């Protein structure tokens, strides 16, 4: 059995913060690894376009894992909201987790963003910087990308652009910006019309270059109660991913980003199986 180690109130807050695909960064951290009793290193990561990102490397008491998870968050809040998930992974699997903030989020370097945009290509540059930093700093570790919401879409793109990844976990990624925009503007799904703006860039289209996907293992997680990202859309895209081991899991009674908190046992089982397959 996997213990419910997640810090419930804060974890549910991130679900609310990521309720819509629109950029809503926060500067103040609701949690730090220290507040979750995690041992960690506070880091600064440079990007190739000379921006600076803040990161936390969350460590197990005894680091014996062959893996490190690089976690890419959603389009709202900051990495403090993902501390409970890092805590769960470290506590149950003894795998270190690198959390980082995109530019403009948390204490990373400021960035002028469009609040109505689905994302910015610069966020992929930031994820790539986190991966590059991890490869250089922890060369004995196998890297697993774990992307949540927007971060899930970016993680898939990153795996099409870089080699040497052990696996990718994408939690509730959109399939295309066009479909996401259409569903948000469908007034039968929401009480009011929500306008979001796609950005014309393959950096934000997770399946545009999927034939180049390099990771051998991929796990896509989704909540059956989600309205704006459909299970059928994600399942239909699975066949296009050229990975040796790929799996899609739909979680009952879960909405966007609710999976680890609402069903820690099912989530923990999925993580255990995935890590085993990545060996």
What do you see in this structure?
The protein is of the alpha/beta class. Helices cover 30% and strands 21% of the residues. It has a single domain (8-277), classed as Rossmann fold, CATH 3.40.50. It has helices spanning 8-17, 83-93, 121-137, 150-161, 177-184, 231-238, 259-262, 264-277, and strands at 24-25, 39-46, 52-59, 67-72, 76-77, 97-100, 142-148, 165-171, 217-223, 245-251. The strands form two sheets. Strands 2-3-6-4-7-8-9-10 form an eight-stranded mixed β-sheet, sandwiched between helices. A two-stranded parallel sheet has the order 1-5. Helix 3 (121-137) packs across helix 4 (150-161).
Please list the strands of the largest sheet in the order they lie side by side.
2-3-6-4-7-8-9-10
Which class do the helix and strand fractions yield? alpha/beta
Helix tally?
Answer: 8
Gross morphology: globular
At CATH level 2, the architecture is 3-Layer(aba) Sandwich
For the residues shown, what is the average pLDDT?
92
Low-confidence stretches: 15-19
Q: The CATH topology is what?
A: Rossmann fold
Order of SSEs, N→C?
HEEEEEHEHEHEHEHEHH
Query: How does the major sheet shape up?
Result: 8 strands, mixed
How many strand elements?
Answer: 10
What is the percentage of strand-forming residues?
A: 15-25%
> Termini, distance in Å?
22 Å
Helix content: 25-40%
CATH class assignment: Alpha Beta
Write the CATH homologous superfamily.
Alpha/Beta hydrolase fold, catalytic domain
């Amino acid at each position: 059995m996997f213990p419910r180690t997640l810090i419930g109130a804060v974890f549910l807050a991130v679900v609310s913060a990521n309720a819509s695909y629109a950029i809503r960064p926060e500067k103040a951290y609701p949690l730090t690894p220290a507040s979750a009793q995690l041992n960690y290193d506070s880091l600064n990561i440079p990007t190739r376009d000379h921006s600076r990102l803040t990161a936390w490397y969350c460590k197990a008491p005894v680091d014996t894992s062959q893996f490190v998870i690089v976690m890419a968050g959603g389009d709202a809040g900051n990495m403090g909201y993902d501390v409970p998930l890092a805590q769960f992974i470290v506590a149950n699997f003894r795998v270190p987790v690198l959390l980082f903030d995109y530019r403009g989020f948390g204490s990373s370097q400021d960035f002028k963003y469009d609040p109505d945009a689905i994302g910015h290509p610069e966020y992929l540059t930031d994820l790539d910087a986190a991966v590059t930093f991890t490869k250089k700093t922890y060369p004995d570790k196998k890297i697993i990308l774990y992307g949540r919401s927007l971060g899930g879409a970016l993680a898939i793109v990153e795996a099409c652009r870089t080699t040497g990844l052990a696996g990718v976990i994408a939690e509730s990624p959109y399939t295309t910006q066009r479909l996401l925009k259409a569903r948000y503007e469908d007034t039968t799904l929401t009480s009011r019309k929500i306008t979001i703006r796609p950005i014309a860039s393959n950096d934000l289209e997770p399946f545009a270059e999927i034939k180049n996907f390099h990771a051998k293992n991929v796990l896509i997680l989704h909540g059956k109660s989600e309205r704006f990202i459909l299970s059928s859309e994600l399942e239909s895209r699975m066949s296009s991913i050229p990975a040796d081991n790929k799996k899609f899991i739909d979680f009952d009674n879960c909405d966007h980003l609710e999976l680890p908190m609402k069903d820690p046992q099912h989530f923990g089982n999925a993580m255990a199986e995935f890590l085993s397959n990545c060996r």
